[in-house]
Automatic annotation (TrEMBL):
Residues 3-32 form the Protein YjdM N-terminal domain. It comes from Inhella gelatinilytica. This is Alkylphosphonate utilization protein. It holds the Pfam family YjdM. Belongs to the YjdM family.
Amino acid sequence: MSTLPACPQCQSTYTYEDGSQLVCPECGHEWSAQAEANVEAARVVRDAVGNVLQDGDTVTLVKDLKVKGSSLVVKVGTKVKNIRLVEADHDIDCKIDGIGAMGLKSEFVKKV
């Protein structure tokens, strides 16, 4: 059983294939399966040493990072579990114990 991507408009998980198109039965949106494959292939996030990162990975920090708007510092070697990759000025959304939700750049982490 192949896993099809969620609808880009309404995020429905009930998408299905209709020939070379992907269709969402909830909102009626149609998009090309080929375009979806190209987008996924083009977006590769790598850590500080070149390992490919994916959603749900565990990483450690390779540099002390100051927390904006606070006097806190996240120390080198801090383990961050269950990262989420995003497209923004930072590559990673995560929660760090004792700090809270943060955005990190992939160049400051190493995959465990």
